[in-house]
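Re: [ENG-882] Designed sequences occasionally contain unexpected residues at chain ends

Forwarding the minimal case from QA. Structure tokens:
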């Protein structure tokens, strides 16, 4: 029995690894959740190994245990603070009026919008019908597996929903959030001769904080208009993934 208990604890990291494999192979869009599961499995294994070495009274193992614990505490604190900012920004300010809004692209499956893109289209429809004087810039190029640009898809869907084509300007060259905003602002300036000071940004709710950072780097003020992610598990997955996205941007000026 003691031998079984001794080895049974390794079932915990094995379980996390198994869940990670399940996320990675059987569920579309949950790759970041899989990464978290693998990281937890590795972290638990490290603690188990350090505990084994500590029982042998190795000073190095004790020091490494303290360092690992300190790093984990710092990482959890930083992640929690980042998540708080992401959640706060996710509510947006959809009641605000703006002369221009930018709808950020997401993926297409051939010519069919992904779930995220469809939600952004519906959010744009709702906002534009509530603000009839607003011009909408749909932004997104054509990526792998896409039969048309994301911008063109959004325009076609919005016009089918009753939005006048004259109110929809197409920016179809961008391949990242940074380019979405930079190219859209350039398009507005080309058409009007004036660079706007403020724009509304429509994106998935979890993405609004980072989109605001990109807008700030482009020299404009912005406010968010959230497109709701309608599946709870996906929403949780994307909120967690966004922590990595924000830190990648802060550390490397991420072009995502």
């Amino acid at each position: 029995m003691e031998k079984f208990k001794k080895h049974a604890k390794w079932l915990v990291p094995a379980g996390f690894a198994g869940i990670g494999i399940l996320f990675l192979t059987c569920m579309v869009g949950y790759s970041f959740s899989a990464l978290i599961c693998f990281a937890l499995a590795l972290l638990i294994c490290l603690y188990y190994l350090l505990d084994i070495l500590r029982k042998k009274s190795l000073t190095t193992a004790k020091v490494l245990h303290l360092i690992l614990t300190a790093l984990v505490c710092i990482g959890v604190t930083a992640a929690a603070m980042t998540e708080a900012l992401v959640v706060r920004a996710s509510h947006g300010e959809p009641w605000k009026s703006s002369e221009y809004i930018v709808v950020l692209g997401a993926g297409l499956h051939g010519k069919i919008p992904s779930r995220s893109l469809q939600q952004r289209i519906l959010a744009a429809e709702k906002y534009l019908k509530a603000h009839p004087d607003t011009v909408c810039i749909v932004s997104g190029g054509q990526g792998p597996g896409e039969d048309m640009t994301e911008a063109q898809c959004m325009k076609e869907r919005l016009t089918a929903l009753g939005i006048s084509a004259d109110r929809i300007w197409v920016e179809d060259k961008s391949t990242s959030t940074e380019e979405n905003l930079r190219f859209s602002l350039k398009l507005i300036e080309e058409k009007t001769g004036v660079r706007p000071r403020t724009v509304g940004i429509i994106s998935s709710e979890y993405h609004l904080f980072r989109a605001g950072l990109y807008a700030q780097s482009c020299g404009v003020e912005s406010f968010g208009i959230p497109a709701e992610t309608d599946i709870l598990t996906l929403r949780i997955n994307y909120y967690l993934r966004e922590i990595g996205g924000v830190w990648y941007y802060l550390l490397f000026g991420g072009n995502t």
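QA comment: On inspection the terminal residues look reasonable. The first helix runs from residue 2 to 8. Proposing we downgrade this to a documentation issue.
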